[in-house]
Amino acid sequence: SGAVSSLQQVIRPSTYGEDEYADVDWDNLGFGITPADYMYINQSTKDGEFHQGQLSRYGALELSPAAGVLNYGQGLYEGTKAYRKEDGRLLVFRPDQNALRMKMGADRICMPCPSVDQFVDAVKQVALANKRWTPPPGKGTMYIRPLLMGSGPIMGLAPAPEYTFLIYCSPVGNYFKGFAPLNLYVEDEFHRATRGGAGGVKSITNYAPVLKAIARAKGNGYSDVLYLDSVHKRYLEEVSSCNIFVLKGRVISTPAAIGTILQGVEERAVAVDELAEADEVFCTGTAVGVASVASITYQGKRLEYKVGAETVAQQLYSILEGIKSGAIEDKKGWVVEI
Ligand code: COI
């Protein structure tokens, strides 16, 4: 068949490692791949149904060269994080929301999708099986990466005949090096997404097209790129790796989700000119967390913003990290304990 198969043997839960911690330099974690012990694979049936998935050793996949994902980009990814609590339990933040976002994406690019329960259960299995790779409290998190892909072979442009839902993970530290506020560059040549495209879902095809803009900006010393809408080149969209929020007085604004960006909170069109008036700007994302923006450069002009302990971004960061890590009481029922 043209489906994915792991080259590694399937592992039964009784063979999980017993050590409390893997041999990792926890004080020097970046946002990179540190291979953990296990990954999860669930192969759809020919009818696109997902039944029982399984854990196997983390390792290479065997995939048909004609797989839909390799040829036509039929794939989605998600990202969530597990936190190790002081009492040793693992916490995951709103994994059902990742499952629902994957469902929306699957619908957009014509894939069957595991149920919310299957998704959340698989995230739990991966987190538990790799517990010894989860950083100690305060040292980082376990980044969990679910993938859904057309793994069956297809020659003409059409949905693949079979699908694979897979989850792997890696211990990570900060997405951006150090903890310094970001210096963003407003890109006006390349766009991340366009109206009617797939920018509103986490299609893997949204990411490679911005690598050039990121490389150029990083080469010039910026942390990341802020994209404008492709129609007017005037409204903010998002940053390559996260969403953006602009604070003026007591109001926080974030670009409206109109199908080109991933969803944020209070949403409206935010014009690039408003950046000149903002008091504070910050970014949010699973990988990034909450990150203050120190400066934004647009058409050769560098705008600077308030950063540091007194900012709204810092308060949001502390509260959100507190809830996610179990240090602050979760009154919303957002945190799932494993
Ligand atoms: C995440 O925050 O999980 C993302 O999808 C961003 C990615 C570039 C690491």
Automatic annotation (TrEMBL):
Source organism, top-level taxon: Eukaryota
Single annotated GO MF: branched-chain-amino-acid transaminase activity
Keywords in alphabetical order: Aminotransferase, Pyridoxal phosphate, Transferase
Needed co-factor(s): pyridoxal 5'-phosphate
Record InterPro entries: Aminotrans_IV (IPR001544), Aminotransferase-like (IPR036038), B_amino_transII (IPR005786), BCAT-like_C (IPR043132), BCAT-like_N (IPR043131), BCAT_family (IPR033939)
Residues that bear N6-(pyridoxal phosphate)lysine: 202
GO biological process: branched-chain amino acid metabolic process
PANTHER family the record matches: AMINO ACID AMINOTRANSFERASE, BRANCHED-CHAIN-AMINO-ACID AMINOTRANSFERASE 2, CHLOROPLASTIC
NCBIfam families named among the record's database cross-references: ilvE_II
Similarity-based family: Belongs to the class-IV pyridoxal-phosphate-dependent aminotransferase family.
Protein name per the record: Branched-chain-amino-acid transaminase
